[in-house]
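User: Quick sanity check before I run a bigger batch. Here is a single chain. Can you write out its predicted 3D structure?
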Amino acid sequence: MTTALKISKLTNLAVIIFYTLLAFLLIKPLFAQDSTISATSDKKILIQQKIEARKEAVQAKVETRKEKVQIRIASKEANIKQKIEDRKEKIASRHAALKEKLQTFKDKKKAEIAETVNTNLNRINTNQTDRMLKHLNTISTILDKVENLVNQGNSSIKDPDATRVAIEDARIMIISTSDVVTEQSGKDYTIELTSESKVKADAQTQRKKLHNDLLAVRKLVIESKQKVTEVIRTAKAEKGAKEATTSGQQ
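Assistant: Done. Predicted structure follows.
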């Protein structure tokens, strides 16, 4: 074999090796790119599945709470109405009994003042509880508006899932508070008269009792309002911001 032929064969072999290496180098990134695309796609699918699972879990939680709330409302409404009617009869009966006792007072002016105070105590209770119920209705309406925005997918609601949960928490609080306020409205603060000489002290006892009862109920109304405020804050917060804030405080 001549030297020229050997050189030619070596040259051909070198060319083959060169193109083989070149092809390998070109194909390898393509495989790597395909692998990266596949991994990214799988990750996106996994994230989407997690999001959907979370939505379903939140929705299930909300629906469960709604059912409990509806059952609670249905069972309590009839009981509360009946209690109020029973209390009205008792109040009327006790008021009549007090009036009879006051008629035996020697000091008619004192008797007149005692009857006026007695009437005012129950009137104050009625007026205050009516005002509280109106306020609860107002914040409940606000809650309904926020819920409508969530259901409509309004862009102003940054975290719909968290907002739904917050709405149900607030709604449960409002309903519970409404029950308490309604029961408070039916309470009787008729003066429990012990004697003519102690009528002033008897009236003060009932006045203090009314004050303390209204104070306790008003506190629940304020807490209900705060719950609705929290709903609005949650609705406006960017998704995950609340968790980040909570984590930072720990």
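DSSP finds five helices and no strands in the chain.

User: Great, the batch can go ahead then.
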